[in-house]
Specification:
The protein has four domains: 121 residues, 3-Layer(aba) Sandwich (Udp-n-acetylmuramoylalanyl-d-glutamate--2,6- Diaminopimelate Ligase, Chain: A, domain 1); 102 residues, Beta-Lactamase (2-Layer Sandwich); 151 residues, Alpha-Beta Plaits (2-Layer Sandwich), CATH 3.30.70; 101 residues, no CATH class. The protein has 537 residues and is of the alpha/beta class. α13 crosses α17. It is elongated, with a radius of gyration of 38 Å. This is PucR family transcriptional regulator. It comes from Priestia koreensis. Belongs to the CdaR family. Pfam families: GGDEF_2, HTH_30, PucR.
């Protein structure tokens, strides 16, 4: 069998090169040849395309060293395969300067010590190259047919990568968009990480060829073939890489179809679960089939609101599900995730002790938002509401309802925080409940109107002073410190508050009412300053 490419070293074994000698650039004998040309002119840069073997008698430059130097430098610059010179009256020998130049670049210079028929050399090598081209096509067709047969029998990507490795005998690497990496042959973990780091740092490394694997018009993975440093890549290997990338794209598309079909089933099941449309037996049967063997110790719902900056929404959601599942499994949860009412609903089945529940949920989302989330740059998570933890799986609707309530309250407050827990809302939950039965605005104004009107009229900040003073439990020293004012200024403000609210505003029952109204004021208006002012007027 012929090799995938024709090298200088192989050409030297042909009969017409029996009287030849390599006089310079021996470390470049691995260079491969695409074509053979006879050149007798010194200006060749525009005539060649690279990887040509040049035959010459030297008549074009004769004994002019400058012309010869210029000629050889052009061949090196365009990456010609090598130069063959017939020694004779036009070129009796090769100057040492030219030999040193060729050695420095690994550019082979071969001399013929007697007259040789250039026409026969070109016919011989061209016939060899043409035959090799046909053999390449035949090998490619055979590879494609066998690859298609393999695709009928396999259900993952490893056999496909092994198949490419068997036909190239070099290292094959595939990096998924999610960060997972596959190698054929397989490598130890540290070797994989070092290799991945090299690929990331040297995207255009000369010993690496790569191909993007596109699925649904988006890059799903990238395939690499890594050659030894002294090994040139051939046209056939480029074509094998392309065929393999297409096969892998088909395999990924098939996996996505199966995953999507499964998700449709899960989505319908989880929708019925959230709407209390399943019996206790149905729930535990499904959890028993789908979760790990660890005992479930309750369930918590987390609802994510998000926006897309791209049209590839379905595919991005697949990545979202994979990343969240991986993150929360490490935190001791079994995760089910679905899109329900235009929100991503995460059903977190707890498998560890409840004491660390909140911390593990927070750590999971923080890790996702700070690291994994960056892999989906076109997906913008706006807010995450974590509902009440329930012990019984059939009570999951209660956790879902409180998660929705958490998002609603935080949206009302215009909070800049991303993650919110229902159990931390405290007074706001009561305010929300009261608001559903009576308009709180009138009650708020009964208590706070004097302060609000004073701030509006004199452009002061008595309301802020009141909030800090109550939060510091009436400590004038701590209040002055937090407001960055001197004691005398604070005393003056407190006197004004006493005149506006009454000297008894710090007494227990009235203080509790004022604190409640301050919370209610923040709840109703949040940061919407213009709405507050217009209402107060």
């Amino acid at each position: 069998m012929l090799s995938f490419y024709l090298t200088i070293e192989e050409v030297l074994q042909r009969n017409h090169f029996s009287c030849s000698e390599v006089v310079a650039g021996e470390n470049g004998l691995h260079r491969f040849i695409k074509w053979v040309h006879v050149m007798e002119v010194t200006e060749v840069k525009s005539l060649l395309r690279g990887h040509e073997l040049i035959l010459s008698t030297g008549i074009g430059w004769g004994g002019n060293l400058d012309h010869l130097r210029y000629f050889v430098q052009q061949l090196i610059d365009i990456d010609a395969a090598g130069l063959c010179i017939e020694l004779g009256p036009y070129m009796p020998d090769i100057p040492d300067e030219i030999k040193g130049m060729a050695d420095a670049y690994g550019f082979p210079i071969i001399v013929f010590h007697k007259e040789v028929p250039f026409i026969e050399i070109t016919q011989d090598l061209h016939a060899l190259l043409v035959n090799q081209h046909y053999e390449t096509i035949s090998k490619l067709e055979n590879y494609s047919q066998n690859l298609q047969k393999l695709m009928l029998d396999v259900h993952d990507v490893e056999p496909i990568l092994d198949f490419l490795h068997q036909h190239t005998n070099v290292q094959v690497v595939m990096k998924l968009h999610s960060g997972a990496i596959y190698c054929a042959p397989d490598l130890p973990f540290l070797s994989k990480q070092n290799l991945l780091r090299t690929l990331d740092e040297k995207d255009d490394h000369p010993s690496v060829i790569q191909q993007s694997i596109q699925v649904l018009q988006k890059e799903h993975a990238r395939l690499y073939v890594i050659f030894p440093s002294a090994r040139y890549r051939s046209e056939l290997e480029l074509l094998l890489l392309d065929r393999t990338a297409v096969a892998l794209a088909q395999q990924f598309l098939r996996e996505l179809y199966v995953t999507e079909k499964k998700q449709v089933h899960e989505t319908e099941w989880m929708r019925r679960w959230l709407e209390q449309d399943l019996t206790k037996e149905d729930i535990y049967y499904y959890i028993g089939e789908s979760s790990s063997k660890s005992k479930i110790k309750g369930v918590t719902i987390a609802v994510c609101t998000y926006e897309y900056a791209s049209e590839q929404q379905d595919l991005d959601l697949v990545y979202l599900q994979l990343l969240l599942r991986n993150t929360f499994e490490q935190q001791g949860f079994r995760l089910f995730i679905t899109v329900y009412k235009n929100q991503a609903v995460c059903i977190l089945l707890n498998q560890r002790e409840g004491k660390t529940l909140k911390k593990r949920i927070m750590d999971g989302f923080m890790r996702f938002l700070s690291n994994d989330y960056k892999r989906i740059p076109k997906l913008a998570v706006e807010s995450i509401g974590v509902g009440q933890h329930v012990e019984k799986l059939e009570d999951v609707h209660k956790s879902y309802e409180t998660a929705i309530e958490t998002l609603r309250i935080q949206q009302q407050l215009c909070s800049e925080e991303c993650i919110h827990f229902y159990e931390e809302l405290h007074m706001y939950r009561i305010i929300s409940l009261v608001q559903q039965h009576r308009d709180l605005r009138d009650v708020i104004m009964e208590y706070l109107a004097p302060v609000l009107e004073y701030d509006q009229q004199f452009n002061t900040k008595l309301l802020d002073t009141l909030k800090v003073y109550l939060a510091c439990n009436g400590s004038k020293k701590e209040t002055a410190k937090q407001l960055f004012v001197v004691r005398q200024t604070l005393y003056h403000r407190i006197e004004k508050l006493e005149r506006l609210l009454g000297s008894d505003f710090m007494e227990s029952e009235k203080r509790m009412a004022i604190e409640f109204m301050l919370k209610a004021y923040d709840y109703l208006f949040g940061q919407r300053t213009s709405e507050k002012i217009s209402y107060e007027l």
